[in-house]
Amino acid sequence: MYRVIISIWLVLIPVSLVRSQDPTDFKTLDSETYRLLLEQKWDSVVKMGYRALKLDFDYYYLRLRIGIACYHRKNYRKAATHFSRALIFNPGDPLALEYLYFSRLFAGQYEEARLVRKQFRGDLALRLPPQKGKFLEGIGGDYLYCRALNDEKLSDPDALFSGLPPGVQYINRHFSNVSLSLSHRIVPGFRLTHAYNYLSKYNYLYYSDGVNQLQSAGQHVYQHQYYISPAITTRSGYAFLPAFHLVSVHFQAPVFPDQGSQGGNSQPRMEYRDSIDMVAGMGFSKGFGPVEVNLGVYYATLNDAEQVQSRLGLTWYPLGNLNLYAGWYLNSQVGITAGGNTLRHIPEMHAGFAIADKVWVDLNAAMGEMEHYLEYNGSVIYNSYADVIRRKATCTVSVPVTGKGSLLYLGGRWTSSRSEFHPFDPGQSDIKNPITYNAFSIYGGLSWKF
Questions:
Q1: In this structure, what are the phi and psi dihedrals at residue 235, rounded to the nearest 5 degrees?
Q2: Exposure winner among 16, 143, 181, 306, fewest CB in 10 A?
Q3: Are the CB atoms for 417 and 389 separated by under 8 Å?
Q4: pTM for this one?
Q5: What is the C-alpha separation between 415 and 221, in angstroms, rounded?
Q6: Which is nearest to 76 in space by CA: 49, 53, 110, 47?
Q7: Cα–Cα distance between 111 and 339 in angstroms, integer?
Q8: Each residue's pLDDT expressed in tens, for the chain with a length of 450 residues
């Protein structure tokens, strides 16, 4: 872990050291903030500094002192705000630049930190030279297994699907997903991330065309997925995140041979069929002090359905670092159909905290009609034709394993889902045959930074 080493005597020496219980003049405020800084009374420096700002005293040394105090209180986001302001008064100042770099770094604003480091000159650049591009910045791999708790409901399928018209219904049984991701740092402010996913899933299938009927406890679906997202970050902290996700779906469908001339029962079989789906969109984020704003809009064609999903969220870092945060998102989905558009709103909450700076816990929960739902800038797709997620909650525990930011993580997810019947006759679309059940997933992986 880096440490910024400075000499306090480099900070402006005040004209006087007059102390006052409630100073209002420039000379006293300047002296007091300097004295408190020397005594390392960080809370008092911040309090006195904000008093000066409220009285319209705003200058380089004041911002620098408040920033240093916030930095030592580990409020890195607030410290970065003051160091940035100090640099407006004194552009290129090496002390403010060095503090700003480490403030961005410890706040988790890594690309902004690299852009700050790019501005280093002289001795500072010799100690901390600008970082060059790195072809392979990081590699990650994880595995997820999901099991649906619906065996009891499927124990009497004849009663479960009795009286249904021609149509099809899928019910999730279990699936697994393997993912491999790579990240590349091209230049400071520009990163490229891409990932490959393989999913293998087994459903319970009910199928009837009015003449033939088939029930299978092991209808297989497998997917190959490729995701790519370049990330562009500006010096002012705006991050633009275009994304593209390609999904190659292979699924078993029933085939009924024609009956022979003598009649008799047809012998059904399962054959694999293919389809190609995609997601394309743009994410955006910007930090404003302790708050980060996230926006996103995505277009998707999944399971022969078109939709647009938007995302608006705020994340609050009350301590100004990664040790505690909480946020809220509103996701909206517009399904585009020939009969008209459908609108769904999905609220989402997330929170996280650190334990002794060694273990990080992340919590997330959402509720709503999550059909063909997208997460994490379109990198995660819930594109099951089998069910609609109504509620979900996840918990992830991460442990750093190297000083460069490599993480080992393990988590679990609970979902409450609903399977629905899909009639072949659009005029019978009101027949749903809803089957609700819970499912649990476990996942884990490693994110390695070079």
A1: -60, -30
A2: 16
A3: yes
A4: 0.88
A5: 20
A6: 110
A7: 45
A8: 444 434 444 444 443 344 445 678 899 999 999 999 999 999 999 999 999 999 999 999 999 999 999 999 999 999 999 999 999 999 999 999 999 999 999 999 999 999 999 999 999 999 999 888 889 999 999 999 999 999 999 999 989 999 999 999 999 999 999 999 999 999 999 999 999 999 999 999 999 998 888 999 999 999 999 999 999 999 889 999 999 999 999 999 998 876 544 555 557 889 999 999 999 999 999 999 999 999 999 999 998 889 999 999 999 999 999 999 999 999 999 988 766 778 999 999 999 999 988 899 999 999 999 999 999 999 999 988 878 999 999 999 999 999 888 999 999 999 999 999 999 998 888 889 999 999 999 999 999 999
Tokens matching residue 171: 């019910």
**63 token code pair:** 């911002």
